[in-house]
Specification:
Elements: H1 2-25, E1 28-40, E2 48-56, E3 70-77, H2 83-96, E4 102-107, E5 109-111, E6 120-123, E7 138-139, H3 159-170
Parallel strand pairs: 3-7
Antiparallel strand pairs: 1-2, 1-4, 2-3, 5-6
Length: 177
């Protein structure tokens, strides 16, 4: 009977460890205040999206770190096999565009292409473009498990501090006399 009890304890410990890894994967990849969303070639059946605003994105190859807020745009194309979720996200982002609300979307952790099992060991790499039309679209990232996030909670404790950074970036600078 004792070996069975030890086995159950080990399996329980493994499941608890797996749960914490899944929770870590659910963190937000992109924070933004979105000015405008443009669908290409049009609203009825978009294949591409241009999202303009101010963004906070992960530091490439980091471990939970983000860069400073950047004004510009993100340019994405529909990822094969994830069309429905991408279009759902894009429509929600379009509704929130121009409201001044801080939103979070996409997963922070992405599969490592060097790992044959795709373990998520590095951060999402996103480019905030500043020149008007110099970008080629990247694949829309994995959607966040919670969809489009509009408020902080225990799963993403950084939301409030990053939202403050984004709002401060948008605040008009007073002139010094």
């Amino acid at each position: 009977m004792r070996p069975a009890l030890i086995f159950v304890a080990l399996v329980s410990l493994f499941l608890l460890t797996t749960t914490s890894v899944i929770a870590k994967n659910a963190t937000i990849g992109i924070y933004a205040v979105i000015d405008k969303v443009t669908f290409e070639p049009g609203d009825s059946s978009p294949a591409f999206v241009r999202i303009a605003g101010v963004f906070v994105v992960p530091v490439p190859m980091s471990s939970g770190k983000y860069g400073s807020p950047q004004r510009g745009y993100l340019y994405f194309r529909i990822p094969p096999g994830r069309e429905v979720q991408a279009l759902k996200d894009w429509k929600e982002l379009n509704v929130l565009a121009g409201t001044g609300r801080v939103v979070g979307f996409a997963d922070y952790w992405v599969p490592n292409p060097s790992d044959p099992q795709g373990n998520p060991h590095h951060s999402l790499e996103v480019t905030v473009h500043t020149a008007p039309d110099d970008a080629s679209p990247g694949l829309y990232p994995l959607s966040n498990l919670r969809g489009i996030v509009t408020a902080g909670d225990k799963a993403d404790p950084a939301f409030d501090s990053i939202a403050t950074q984004l709002r401060e970036t948008l605040r008009p600078q007073s002139s010094i006399k």
